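User: quick one, fold this
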Amino acid sequence: MFRDVMGLPAHALLVHAAVVFVPLLALVATGYVVLPRFRSRLDWAAAVLAVAAPLAAFFALRSGEELRDVLIANNYPPEILQMVTEHEGYGELTLWWSSALGALTVLLLVVTSPRVRRAVPGWLGLLLGAGVVVLAGISVWYVYLTGDTGAKAVWQGVL
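Assistant:
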């Protein structure tokens, strides 16, 4: 299902969604935390990205696994396969961290909504906000590491 799209490896196409949506979730969720004045404008985007970013990371990971299987079947050199394994490890971590960020963002949206805000202690919103900011930084870091190792696996030695 995730092997190819019109003869191109699906991973080369799907990975771009994760590269865009995960950092965008990090940015919007952090903006939601540090700019409470704009929460009513950011809440819908944060909610959509909280679902879309982890899904994009999931599809990128699954398509990458299928691409790895193709590389193994085509007898790619062990050095490249080792780089692909490292890249895949970072991709798995990107999925987990972006999923945690998405879940915590949704929880923050619920806790800070006008109906719920009055029923929960104020420190809970602050704690969730701090968690969102930390997870945003970690998620962006792993997107970077995943992309860097993937690019090196593909392009190192080409230019």
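User: anything notable?
Assistant: The beta strands are 4-5, 8-9.
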